[in-house]
Every structure is written in C-alpha cells, then in structure tokens.
UniProtKB/TrEMBL annotation, chains A, B:
InterPro entries: HTH_LacI, LacI/GalR-like_sensor, Lambda_DNA-bd_dom_sf, Peripla_BP_I. This is LacI family transcriptional regulator. It comes from Streptomyces zaomyceticus. Keywords: DNA-binding, Transcription, Transcription regulation. It comes from the Bacteria. The keyword Cell membrane does not apply. It holds the Pfam family Peripla_BP_3. Residues 4-58 form the HTH lacI-type domain.
DNA sequence: CTGAAAGCGCTTACAG
DNA sequence: CTGAAAGCGCTTACAG
C-alpha cells in the first residue's frame, strides 16, 4: 500500500500540484472552491506529505535535537531530573510543532555522532542537557552555528542557557539552618566541574563566612550513594556536627540513610537540607527540607529561549528564582 | 556557509557523483584509488550527506519513534520507569544506528499527531511505552502496518511486546510474607486497566487462595500519593493487618509514610513488599523488600524485538524473569 | 488566483 | 569498475 503523492491528489482533484501544495500548506491565496475539492481529495486518499521531499526543498526540518550529555562515569539511571526535564521539554517542543530527536552523549563516539548529526543539518536547533561539566560538546555545538541552548549553564560561555540562582539557593538553606540554631554546618557538594555545584558550594561558604563560621566540606557527585559516603566521612571527621546541607536531594537521601545507620536522629541531632525539592523529598523519613528548583518551569523556559533563537531572537541567559520548602528534617 | 553537496565533492575529486555516492555508502565495488581520492575530498570539504535527499530516494529513515503514552490523568513526572527505560532504549537504538524520535502521547491531539507522523512514513518502526491501559493508540499503530513493539503488554493483542511474569512476581512476594508468618496480607493494586496491574493482583489472590486466606484489596494508580491513601484506607478497614504487598515501589514508599504517621512499626507491626526494585527502594526507612523487575534489560530486549521485526524477524512476545530482593521491611 | 517548469541532493538501474 | 541520466516528492519563483 503505497502512500499517495501530491501528484495523485492533484489528479483526483483535477487541479495542479501547485494548488494542492498551497492548500496543504495553508496559503491564503487559494480560491475557496479549489481548497474544498483539494481537501476532499486529501481526505479520501489519506494523503500525508512526504517530509523528506519537503525538507529537501524548504531546508527546514521542524525538528530539534535534545541531547543529554552524561558524565563518563555514568549517572543514576533513574535520575529524576532526566524524567522531569525531558518530559517538560518534549511537551513544550511538540506544542510548538517541533519533532524531538533524543540523543544520548555518553562516550566520545556518541559525542561525535551528535556533532555529525547536528552539523548535518538534520535539526533546526539543539537543546543541551549537560549532566557533566568538562565536556567539549557545548563548545563544539556552538561552533556549528546552529541555534543551541542549554538547560543550566555549561563550560562554554557562548551557549545561552536557563539556569538557577544556585548561590542564593544555598544561602537560603544555610541561613535557615543558622536560624534553627545550628552551629556546625557541613556541606556535601555535587561534582565540582559542574557550574551549579560550584555555585551552591560558594553560596554555602559565603553565608557561613559572613557569620564567622568555618566550612566543613565533603565531595559528592549527585548520586544517593555518594551522599551516603560523604555523610559517613563527615561523621568521622567531625562527630560534633549538627547540620548538613546536601547540594541535591538524591545525596540528602543517601545522607539520611547514613545518619540512621549511625544512630543519629534527624533533626534532633543533625538537621538536613537538600536541594531541588524532587517529589521523593516529601516521602523520606523524616520528610526533607529542600531548596526548590523549578525544573519543569526551567525546562519550558529553555525551550522558549531556543525557539526564540531559531526565530532570530536574543540570546540572553535567564535565571530562575528558587525558594526553601521546610519540612521535618530541620 | 552552505554545506557541500555530492556534486562539489565529485568535482573536487574529479570523479562522477555515482562514484562518490558509492564510496560514501561503503560499497565494495570501487577501485581503491577512487576511494582514496573521494575520501580525501570528503574530509577536506567536511561533507555530510543530506538526509532528506537520501531518504527521499531510499525510503529508509533510520529513525525509530519512541512513544510514551501517558494516562489522561497524568503521571508522576519523575517516574523512574521513564528515565530508566527511555535511557536504555535510546542507548540501544543508537548503537544500532537508529535515530530516536521521542513522542509523548498524552492527549487526543498528541495521539493524533503520533498516528499522523507514524503513518507519514517518517520512521522505520515504533517502540511504545504505554503507561496507560485503555488507549486506542496500540491498535491504531498496529493498523499502520509499520513494525511496532511495546514495552509491556498492551490492550492490543496484535502488538508484540516484552513483558514480565507479573503473576509469579506477586506470588514471590506473597509467599515470602507467608513464610515470615504474616497472616493478614493486603494488596495495593496499580490501575486496573493496565495488564500488569491485573496480573500482579491475580498472582496475589491466587497465592492467598491456595492457603485458604482471603484477599484485602485497595486500589492505587502507581503513584506515591495513591499508595499513601490506599494504606490509610486499609488501616481503617482492617486495623489488624500485618502485611501489605504494593504493586510497585512508588506506592510502597507512600504506604511506608502512612504507616509511620500511623505509628505502625515496619516490619514489626506491618511488613511491606514493593515491586520493581527501583534504586530508591534501598534508601527507604526501613529499606524496602521488593520484587525486582529488570527494567533496563527488558527495555533492551524490546529494542531487539523491534529491530528484528524491522528486518522481517518473528513477532514472538518475550517474558522476562523476576526475583525477590529481601531488605529490612519484611 | 493558477499552472508549467525547474530544482532541492541524493541513489540506482543501465550501458559501457 | 565507472559515469550519464532518470527519478524520488515536494516547493517556489515566474508567467499568465
């Protein structure tokens, strides 16, 4: 069952291919009677335009590449950011009539594949979701000249992005802990090649410094297991600590487990604040206080930035606000 | 900076377009010296074939649609299944040289869009991830005649799938609870339009029936909040229950919260078993016993089924085994 | 407002 | 093994 072409629609309707094309593309310069007869033929034949032929001549693809760039050591496969952001991005892109081509960039090979594909003109633009701080992809994509934006800031300053005010988010968390009377406040950082990890650490440091307190730092990588390990190390190094700020909720969840295993009560002995306010934060024991980052909104704003760019709009970065959600862990 | 075409490569190399085409497509019937000169020209010019032109003549697309069909009432945006399965599917498809076109089917409009797109011959095949039991999409896709497979069984028997042995998974959970000496074992079901929800319920029922016990059933919809509510209801209806089998881990997490709020100790007063063994299961308080479903493996198997189908292979459904992972909650 | 014709950049029989 | 030519299914000036 071969698909009908413009030509057979034209024959059926008794008009030229040009007219059918105009009707199908909704041009206004078509006589009503022609439109009607063409519409009928289209319906009867079940005509769907051949995208390849159309793209070949128009040079538009109506597709956008969504590339998720993972760190070499891999990520948590169930990372809530992936689901939330990819879903929100797809929904918004589809609403704008764009096809979503999802690409994972995890290895040098797959990175090369992404570059090829993008340089090959298969898409109108690129939305980057970089879970990784040191990769050459953002700069490489920017070099292709194709409209490219990033969810969160990358290591390539020329790529416009929608980010968070991470430092003030962290400050929110630390000030809250101080107000609760906590005196020895530790931090568990994200991977430090990531811009948002560094900003969250800076916000923590600056806030403590302002009150004359010292920082207590353990390194994590945004996974639950790294949060659990960092917490263990913090407890060893400074058994008297009475609060911890984890740079994301997944690590806070890991820290909570370590604290429970160590017999520390939360929040009585140690208060815990996370970052992101993922859905799971409301279901931990005790429920987690967290700095909310509006991931879905941020994702939508990133799409709008990209669509604007494709239309020749401005490339101004956008910063989303965040707020503290207080629950039982502090 | 216009991209170079076959024609300019041919001119540069001093050969015909046909020869360039053959070299680029790796045909073996090309003299080595021609191959070399063409390769050089390709490299120097940075030639990348125009996919639209190629598709137009070959009628292959080297793309696969991954359609995620959500229920009308929406889903948990951070559903770990989405991240795990979409990631695994993409990775596997990319390894096979297929482009991944991600499509969300959430409304009638987006469903129509998916059908159009698929019928429009933009892809070589379709991988369906249906989080929803009553939708017309599986049957509609099957009707297009395009190779279509589903992650988990759908309501359209003609769509081949890779599923789980849900009934025996549930039986594993219930037998384990019986062995632990539990006598009043409740179940929290998933949405009953979903095949796997019904199978898990059946497995629970059959196992209890075999030991002469009665079922205690509460309805959920696979979200945390529905698990929390179902647990509240179960506690009201049967305060003496001493175990609950939740049909997925998200609902088990919700149930855990309700039990804590109600002052029931887990597992001393009430034992809890989940299903799926998502990463979060190891981080609940107490850590959750769960029936592991090998989501990533299942995703990969589904991709292989699809690739086979595209090559004209068999359409036999595949059933993956599952096993019980015992932790602290039982 | 409508139609005939050229052209987008490839691949693929076909002849040589 | 190589090249000239036709053709894939559209859109888009251009003339009328």
């Amino acid at each position: 069952m071969k698909r009908p072409t413009l030509e057979v629609v034209a024959a059926r309707a008794g008009v030229s291919k040009s007219s059918v094309s105009r009707v199908v593309n909704g041009e206004s310069t078509v006589a009503p009677e022609i439109r009607d007869v063409v519409m009928r033929a289209v319906r009867e034949l079940g005509y769907v335009p051949n995208a390849a032929a159309r793209n070949l001549v128009t040079r538009r693809t109506d597709a956008v590449a969504v590339v998720v760039s993972d760190p070499p050591q891999g990520v948590v496969s169930d990372d809530p950011l992936f689901a939330t952001v990819v879903r929100a991005v797809s929904r918004e892109l589809e609403a704008a009539g764009k096809q979503v081509v999802l690409m994972l960039a995890e290895s040098d090979r797959s990175r090369a594949r992404v570059e090829q594909y993008v340089a090959g003109g298969h898409v109108d633009g690129v939305m980057l979701i970089a879970l990784h701080g040191t990769d050459p992809l953002p700069a490489a994509l920017a070099r292709t000249g194709l409209p490219t934006v990033s969810f969160n800031r990358t290591n390539a300053p020329e790529v416009p992005y929608v980010g968070l005010d991470n430092a003030s988010g962290a400050a929110l968390a630390v000030r809250h802990l101080l107000e609760r009377g906590r005196r020895r406040i530790a931090v568990i950082t994200g991977p430090l090649e990531l811009y948002e990890s560094r900003e969250r650490l800076d916000g923590y440091r600056a806030t403590l410094r302002d009150t004359g307190r010292r920082s207590i730092v353990a390194l994590g990588d945004f996974t639950r297991v790294s949060g659990a390990e960092a917490m263990r190390q913090l407890l060893d190094d400074d058994p008297a600590l009475d609060a911890v700020f984890a740079s994301n909720d997944l690590m806070a969840i890991g820290a909570l487990r370590t604290l429970r295993e160590a017999g520390r009560r939360v929040p009585e002995d140690v208060a815990v604040v996370g970052f992101d306010d993922i859905e799971a934060a409301a279901y931990t024991t005790p429920a987690l206080t967290s700095v909310r980052s509006p991931m879905a909104d941020q994702a939508r704003a990133t799409v709008r930035l990209l669509l604007g760019l494709i239309e020749g709009g401005p490339r101004e970065p956008v910063i989303m606000p965040n707020e503290l959600v207080v629950r039982e862990s502090t």
